[in-house]
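Entry
Fold in token form

___
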Amino acid sequence: MYVVAVLAERGVPMDEILADAVVEGSSVLDGLLRSLEDTPVPEQHSTPLELFREALRPIDRALGLIGAPEPPAGTGARRLAPWDHYGLSPGSSQVLGPAAHEAHLRWGVAKAAAMARLVDSTTGPLLGLFCPAQDRPFLVAHAETSGYRTVVMPTAKPVAVAVVCAEERGADAIVRDAAMESRVVVYGRSIDDIDEMRFKSLGASTVVHADRFLAQPGEYLPFLA
């Protein structure tokens, strides 16, 4: 479990107060997710990751009750909400494990597709591109035949999928920001093991050599039914 792992990493022992808070948080999350499922797509204003963060409030309160020290600056803990004194909120669903990450990304793609159908049945979810000019025409053509609309990144528009070329200046920042809510595919012509580890640590779902990606991009992009 995410909370147990984070507390163990910080050396905070699991006592009865924290255990009760974890149970309470799990119950809150179940209720929030059920409510999300019952809410019409146009009225869904929170993502599953945002709901997970909200369910961490009881754990944050419990840590305060037992007098646990707040993580100092520079430890990697990020406070993503005013109440998040202990930096428990994950920046990406990827840190919650492969199953949660995939479920979150599927939700994003499904919501984007549903919203697009409400606006115009000829449009689909957005696929963001951050790539060299010579790759763009091919990727746009593939995306559009696969049911996506395309937009050049960075963009203020939410994208369901981001395709990022590792060799482009600013690729790291684009991956980090997009991975908060989107599936991110990174490709590059000089990708090595170190690059793969770096981009995955930033939140990329897939890191692949350009030869393989450009030969069969459909193998790496979510299929739209």
Notes: Residues 118-122 have pLDDT under 50 and may be disordered. DSSP finds nine helices and five strands in the chain. Residues 16-38 form the longest helix (23 residues). The two ends are 32 Å apart (CA to CA).
